[in-house]
């Protein structure tokens, strides 16, 4: 099989996302001077288990063995945001994420962001959602979001959330790396967020409002819960805001 030129992979949002997620996790380890072995085990476990579950799910449906790119992305996102303290719960998070993709569907399309679903369930089970890998490198996720044409939702969310935060605290944290990872790596999933520009902007504004309100009671999981709520309105936004 002939390999395609490197620029072909760089211009693909899935391939660039996979590369950036792996690089972001490794950068996070060295940037924050974290224990190398335990974090590498965590990254390997989630980035292998999620695509393995996805591969099995796809095979059960189609009887074909297809490379699970979206499953690998899900596993790598989970590796970047969940704590390595309890590996068995990290494994359950991967299973829950892929199960939500294959089971919770509308018109044969999954509704919820798999990584957000898995991380939220892991949070309920006691595995911390720590966003540990967020670092200055996380702003580079703007690139695959731009390739996938899903940047409007991320930018509208980012801007309104910063405005709310400034209004309540008087501080403007533009270089918020955890926020950048969430906005550009998670709130840009092509399959689960609105498609038209107006719909993306409305989704981003709604996400900022929900996250702000949920943070008053559920600080650790507010971003995940808010994103899943917006996912539920994707079809409505797509049909009404073209």
Residues in helix, %: 55-70%
Order of helices and strands: HHHHHEEHHHHHHH
Whole-Å distance between the termini?
41 Å
Which whole number gives the mean pLDDT?
93
Strand content: under 5%
Q: Using the alpha-carbon principal axes, give the shape.
A: globular
Number of strands: 2
Strand order of the largest sheet: 1-2
The Cα radius of gyration reads 17 Å
Taking the sheet with the most strands, its summary is: 2 strands, antiparallel
Secondary structure class reads mainly alpha
Question: Which regions have little confidence, pLDDT < 50, spanning 5+ residues?
Answer: none
Tally of DSSP helical segments: 12
Number of domains: 2
Supply the key terms:
242 residues, globular, mainly alpha, 2 domains, two-stranded antiparallel sheet
Indicate the topology.
Blueprint: H1 6-10, H2 13-31, H3 36-62, H4 69-81, H5 87-103, E1 105-106, E2 109-110, H6 114-124, H7 142-147, H8 151-169, H9 177-186, H10 197-214, H11 222-232, H12 234-240
Antiparallel strand pairs: 1-2
Give a verbal description of the structure.
- By secondary structure, this protein is mainly alpha-helical.
- The chain folds into two domains: 6-124, no CATH class; 146-240, no CATH class.
- Helices cover 67% and strands 2% of the residues.
- The protein is built from twelve helices and two strands; from the N terminus they run αααααββααααααα.
- It has helices spanning 6-10, 13-31, 36-62, 69-81, 87-103, 114-124, 142-147, 151-169, 177-186, 197-214, 222-232, 234-240, and strands spanning 105-106, 109-110.
- The protein has a two-stranded antiparallel sheet.
- A hairpin with a 2-residue loop joins strand 1 and strand 2.
- Helix 2 (13-31) runs antiparallel to helix 3 (36-62) and helix 8 runs parallel beside helix 10.
- The N and C termini lie far apart (41 Å).
- The mean pLDDT is 93.
